């Protein structure tokens, strides 16, 4: 019985903080994108399933921006693999690891290996739009 009052002392302020945070959120319609659709789903910018190319990312961003959500959030589909030039997990080290487990790099990984930066391209394209939509990663 003594744990219940302590739990209430913790939960009541936690709930109040959650409600306050929710009420302050300026975004009502977020769009969350893991980018897997850019190469797997037919669209005006990618007619059939194919390896990743930056133009597929840019087409996907343009499509979302045209739908006008309040905020655009990119969640890299391979979250454990940086989609940008990383000093913490360099892409070449990751590709070497893949070889040790008998796997080939994905088209996203090859894009980064060849100097691409999915996150920078995403942010540039969203910020270029006339809507000045906020973007998160």
Biggest pleated-sheet summary:
3 strands, parallel
| Class based on secondary structure composition and strand pairing | mainly alpha
The total of helices stands at: 6
What helical percentage do the residues reach?
Answer: 40-55%
Q: How many beta-strand elements?
A: 3
Q: Quote the beta fraction.
A: 5-15%
The low-confidence parts are none
Order of helices and strands: HEHHEHHHE
Structural write-up:
There is one protein chain. The chain has 137 residues and is mainly alpha-helical. The protein has six helices and three strands, in the order αβααβαααβ. The protein has a three-stranded parallel sheet with strand order 1-2-3, covered by helices on one side. The longest helix has 22 residues, at 3-24. The chain is globular. The N and C termini lie far apart (44 Å). The mean pLDDT is 79.
Write a compact overview of the structure shown.
This protein is mainly alpha-helical and 137 residues long.
């Amino acid at each position: 019985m003594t744990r219940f009052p302590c739990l209430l002392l913790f939960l009541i302020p936690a709930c109040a903080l959650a409600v306050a945070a929710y009420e302050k959120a300026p975004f009502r319609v977020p769009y969350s994108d893991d980018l897997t659709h850019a190469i797997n789903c037919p669209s005006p910018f990618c007619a059939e399933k194919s390896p990743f190319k930056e133009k597929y990312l840019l087409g996907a961003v343009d499509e979302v921006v045209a739908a006008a959500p309040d905020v655009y959030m990119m969640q890299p589909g391979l979250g454990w693999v940086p989609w940008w030039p990383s000093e913490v997990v360099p892409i070449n080290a990751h590709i070497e690891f893949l070889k040790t487990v008998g796997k080939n790099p994905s088209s996203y990984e090859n894009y980064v290996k060849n100097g691409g930066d999915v996150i920078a391209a995403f942010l540039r394209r969203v910020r270029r739009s006339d809507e000045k939509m906020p973007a998160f990663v």
